[in-house]
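Please, structure for the following, as tokens.
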Amino acid sequence: MLAAADTDDFLNAICHEPDCLISSRSRYINNGRHRMKQVPRVHIVGRKNAGKTTLVCDLVQRLTQAGLQVATIKHTHHRHELDTPGKDSHRHRQAGAAAVGILSPGMTAAFIPGNRDVREDDRYEHFDVLFRDFDLILVEGDLHATARRIEVWRSALNELPYASSDQQIQAVVSDDEPVVDCPVMPRSDLNPLIDHILSR
């Protein structure tokens, strides 16, 4: 989590340092004195009703119990309005704010409208800033991400796993017997999967 001092340093770097390079498409710092840690990101992908959400929640619980700080991202193709129309923060955006933050005693949130000219994969760089102090980022979904992808699959879906045709998927999690070229790890025992995630 971002401490107040870390946030101040981050903002000062953006606003006051002449050699600070800020990309207009991703808004992240990239210079020698402010090099941010690259937090590992793993995508849990799979077909509808394959069990992605349940697997992500189970992994978060296990990894948190092991002492890791895990952040999660839900990827969706639906164009939901994530803010509440009529609320002050939504009105700020309607007035032309490029991004809007909400800070309450118990939660911090940011709404950053997507840019059609920016590759979707590049938009994860926003989270590199927000989640830089965490140990791992788990993403539910996004089959086309360039980061590591692990598929959860069940034969009851009556569809082949994506990994049967996508050689970039690193592993399949299933208690069935998918015909794939990548490693298959049991869904009923998360230890091999956790070892796989943490060993990379």
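The first helix runs from residue 4 to 16. The mean pLDDT is 80.
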